[in-house]
Amino acid sequence: MRLFLLTALTMVAFAANSVLNRMAIVDGGMDAILFAVVRLLAGAGLLAGLLLWQRKAFDFSSVKRPIGALSLLVYLFGFSLAYQALPSGVGALLLFGMVQMTMFFAAVTGGEVIGRKRWLGTGLAFAGLCWMLWPSGEAASPFVAMGSMLIAGVGWGVYSLVGRSAIDPVQATAMNFIIAAPIGLVLLLVLPVNMAAISGAGVALAIISGAIMSGMGYALWYAVVPDLGATRAAVSQLTVPVIATFGGVLFLSETVTLEFALSTALVLGGVGLALRNK
């Protein structure tokens, strides 16, 4: 029961990032890049404090640190930019669908033996994503936002792949945030950012998203993953788009269309089939 509750809490934290981003950027009018940088700095600050509290070293020596930091930046910026136009549930589904695709591609190119069930499940999930991305006759699809979220999914997939070999995952996550933080500040000066589009509420939501939902959420996730195992850990993340959709309906007055519900079922069913044990 304890493992179930901790896992459920972690999935809620992941889904809350979608709702908080959407709430600050769309409802609060905060600049997306600015939100991403504040979120990054908040996560870096909390994780640095966690390392100090645990008396762990700030280890910059790993050759994978730059890859982890850059993939984290790709995820954070793509995630925030996408939520300028995407509903919470759609964004979460695109993100985690692309994460699964990225990790599947890595498995294929890495020489891993792929069973027929996993090929079939991945094909169904890809078909679901194509259905969601297909132009609708009623309104133009936000292709730029969708593309940003797909890129964010690749970033998070690479970040997850790099983290699999971490001896101390919490320390690795903290160092990735700490290394990425100054790069995020530089990007804040280089990229077109509307500094006037900032509010106390938006900054507060970014801090909550970065420090609590991301920093503490990722730390909690690494604590439960060893007990879950790889397959159950992957399957549990399939609940995030569903939770994010409910959060969008409750807090952002978003609507759920039949097309979205059917494409969601196809994506989640395909990924679930691909992850099933023999």
From TrEMBL:
The chain crosses the membrane at residues 32-53, 65-83, 89-107, 119-137, 143-162, 174-191, 197-221, 233-252, 258-275. It comes from the Bacteria. Residues 148-274 form the EamA domain. The keyword Repressor does not apply. GO terms for cellular component: membrane. The keyword Transmembrane helix applies. Keywords: Membrane, Transmembrane, Transmembrane helix. InterPro entries: AA-Vitamin_Transporters, EamA_dom, EmrE-like. Its main location: membrane. It is a multi-pass membrane protein. It is found in: Membrane. This is EamA-like transporter family protein.
